[in-house]
Amino acid sequence: MRILHTGDWHIGRKMNGLDLLEDQEYILEQLFTYIDKEDIDLVVVAGDIFDRANPSQAALKLANDALVKINIELGKKLIIISGNHDSRERINYGSEWFKSTDFYINTDLDKVHEPVSIDDVDFYLIPHIDVLEARVYFEDESIESHEDAYQKIVEKISKVMNKDRTNIAVGHLYLSGSIESDSERPLSMGLSEAVSVDTFKDFDYTLLGHLHHPFAVNHDKAFYSGSLLKYSFSEVKQPKGFRLIDTSDKKVTFVPLTPKHDLVYHQGTFEDLVNREVTFEDKDAYYKFELSNMAGISEPMSKVRLLYPNTLELKPLIEEQNNDLKQIDISKVNDREIFEAFINQTLDREVTEFEFETFKNYFVGEDNETD
Amino acid sequence: MRILHTGDWHIGRKMNGLDLLEDQEYILEQLFTYIDKEDIDLVVVAGDIFDRANPSQAALKLANDALVKINIELGKKLIIISGNHDSRERINYGSEWFKSTDFYINTDLDKVHEPVSIDDVDFYLIPHIDVLEARVYFEDESIESHEDAYQKIVEKISKVMNKDRTNIAVGHLYLSGSIESDSERPLSMGLSEAVSVDTFKDFDYTLLGHLHHPFAVNHDKAFYSGSLLKYSFSEVKQPKGFRLIDTSDKKVTFVPLTPKHDLVYHQGTFEDLVNREVTFEDKDAYYKFELSNMAGISEPMSKVRLLYPNTLELKPLIEEQNNDLKQIDISKVNDREIFEAFINQTLDREVTEFEFETFKNYFVGEDNETD
Description:
Two copies of one chain form a homodimer. By secondary structure, chain A is an alpha/beta fold. Chain A folds into three domains: 2-256, Purple Acid Phosphatase, chain A, domain 2 (4-Layer Sandwich), CATH 3.60.21.10; 263-316, no CATH class; 330-363, no CATH class. Chain A has helices at residues 21-37, 57-73, 88-92, 95-98, 131-138, 146-158, 270-274, 300-307, 335-347, 353-363; strands at 2-6, 14-15, 18-19, 42-45, 77-81, 103-106, 116-118, 121-125, 166-172, 174-176, 194-196, 205-209, 222-224, 241-246, 251-256, 263-269, 286-292, 311-316. Chain A has a six-stranded mixed beta sheet with strand order 6-5-4-1-14-15, covered by helices on one side. In chain A, helix 1 (21-37) runs parallel beside helix 2 and helix 5 (131-138) crosses helix 6 (146-158). The longest helix of chain A is centred in the first third of the chain and has 17 residues, at 21-37. The relative contact order of chain A is 0.12. The A-B interface holds A 53-54, 57-58, 60-61, 63-64, 68, 72, 87-90, 92-94, 96-98, 100-101, 103 and B 53-54, 57-58, 60-61, 63-64, 68, 71-72, 87-90, 92-94, 96-98, 100-101, 103.
């Protein structure tokens, strides 16, 4: 079976106020062309079809048109799960009818252990969930992290899984591929959502959405497709495209797509840019410039846009800033040291015992949760 | 063919801040029971499924559940058009798949002349439109009223209509049944949306939504189903239910439904109510009271709610007000007389010539349009 794995479409996304619907339509057309020409059997969209729970009418139309194209016009089987940006009810609307053309959506924890069986493959569709939801659903207060929650789900699936078939999990979560990032230390707030790659070890493939970098995890059985487009200037260096999984020869490849407008980030001086000392080939890209020596320049954005009309962001570059930041190995310092360094750096004074006690009480324990 | 005609569900509607989803679920259950028991072939929902373009997730779920119940679980054919409260893109989402189970939605002016043919009946699905839309669509600036717009649409349908078949129009509009209400006089603002019943004379039946009173028009071939529930205190005296059309014996009947909470409006004195001089059998109804002699009473709402917990509105009744309003026959007075009476009554003085000229210039001509 040849599976095209995509995700994080974020239909309706805006960037710096700019509507990206045309860019999304453009890149989806490329996806359709590929699906049509390359003999794909099944398309998997691993969550975040929409950018928000209440998408605009134009976003709804573009999404509907894309699904009609893939499933009805091109006649490809289709699997979708809900991501954290999607409204489950929105995504689920109409799903009873979609089944008639092998288009399967799951947004329901109650159904994660009911595989969608196509040929010799069982697909387990796991919608994005958070810790509180999992606690309520499993009636288990001991669930304290995404790791706990997803382990519970995989346990539930394991009980029914037929190992003689090819088993594929589809999820929308933050998978951590390395032991370090599993740290449960209180200050590692950003990591509390991380789910270890071991959780999914029983699956032949785990097709993921959530992280926008297609190579966020380097694993032979679990991978991200990456997002449809570069959705922030932190993603400028990320390739964008989709995954292709061939279950017969067990090959997994990443296929890049070319956006209507690329995203470019540049740091330099204002003079160099406007005097064309530095130039960029692609005049139509979306640019973010951080430029020094802009003080006293009137309407710098207008001047920059004469050269690059689609400049989205222009910021003064302050070069001295952050000079005293050092690379430190976070695993070798304790909470007290980190907190002291933080207060020292931001308030330029020492930490009091009272402050540290307050900090400890606040961050250690049940409150240490982010969504 | 036995057709159940309903409309104006307004799923997600609130009344005085109160969420009516439970009331809507309750009454829909009655509808399902009827559909199931009475051997209905087809259900028509004549617009305004939702109360607003961006329904809540709970509203989306209730609507989806209702459509699944009727079309998939009970296996009934289903026809829906968009009303003025619906978002066309929202209603249209998924419609390509719905066709597979004889569930047809039209939200598109381009398709009004493509009938849905079921047995010997052709259904023409006409979504709600406004004047500006019709002007753009037909590229005809001479369209100045809903009447003009719907005549254009019916013209388009008439060209393809097969008179040998039973032809049914489904629409969401303000149909006027009598010659008087077709008045094009400038002051008849509320009537500018009215479409004459003659517009639809070529159809065997015209099934309508928009007006909430099931007997808003008294005609043997065109009728409203009325809304699913009483949605404002101006509707207290209206029966609520659905229409049943039997095309074989040409019988059209109205079938009333019983809501979970009725709506009751009462005028009287505060003393009479709290001293139980007047009482109402149904303690659970939604009440609106306009009561005199409330001056000086502390927390009157709390006292009223001791008797009627679901009281939604409590207003002081000022009995002298409006005493000098007279019933007048609007067809016998001219614009000048109406305007003079208005200024006289509200400002307590005579109209100046300048004012009347301004009024005339403003209201006569192209500005006389409401949506």
